[in-house]
Design goal:
It contains eight helices and six strands. By secondary structure, it is α/β, with parallel strands linked by helices. The chain folds into two domains: 142 residues, HAD superfamily/HAD-like (Rossmann fold); 51 residues. The chain has a six-stranded parallel beta sheet.
């Protein structure tokens, strides 16, 4: 039976921070860069929760997510991995963009993923601190590839091998990573990681 790799979308498959900050700069005249991006938008914008919700609703209705740039080097690596592993998507995106997300994945990564799971952490109360570990555990995932340190650490605690993806400002840590969390700079590093497991 194939092992399962759970894969995040934003800033793993899609250039979310770039797309989001571009939209924010154009719409609200902010001056944000990718290095300013954080998951909790109120901190980034320095506004109250009510205004965050208003802006979030506008952003999610804008169609911007469906226009995100995809990571072109990911597809051939994922196609090769899909011959040996079951690949599933696990995303924190709000369910309101589920159809847009599915269409985007079909456009850029058609035929690669056997399922797409929306965690819905932000659907009801914005800014809840949660992880994907429970979902990965329920799916029987053996690996998680994610750009958020908290999801990788929680998954590692649940016995899942986690790959902390990217060299982003928001996922750097001075602490030593646990044994079953591996930092991977890019998709080539992901490819090397799994190649080593072929023996």
């Amino acid at each position: 039976m194939k092992q399962t790799i759970a894969i995040d979308i934003d800033d793993v498959l899609a250039d979310n921070a770039q797309g989001f900050t571009d939209f924010s700069n154009q719409r609200w005249n902010t001056n944000l860069t990718v290095d300013d991006y954080v998951e909790h938008w109120g901190e980034m914008w320095n506004i109250d929760d009510e205004e965050v919700e208003r802006r979030s609703a506008e952003f999610h209705a804008s169609g911007s997510i469906g226009k995100y740039v995809h990571k072109t080097d990911a597809k051939p690596i994922l196609e090769e991995l899909s011959t040996r592993y079951k690949l599933v998507v696990v995303t924190s995106r709000r369910s309101v963009v589920s159809e847009e997300t599915k269409a985007w994945l079909e456009t850029h990564y058609s035929g690669i993923f056997s399922a797409i799971h929306f965690a819905g952490f932000f659907d009801n109360s914005f800014g809840i601190h949660m992880t994907k570990a429970t979902i990965c555990k329920e799916l029987g995932a053996d690996y998680l590839i994610d750009d958020q340190l908290k999801h990788c650490l929680a998954s590692a605690e649940a016995g899942i091998q986690a790959l902390l993806f990217g060299e982003y400002k928001w996922n750097q840590t001075a602490s030593k990573l646990p044994e079953n969390v591996t930092q991977v700079a890019d998709w080539q590093a992901v490819e090397r990681y799994f190649a080593e497991r072929r023996g």
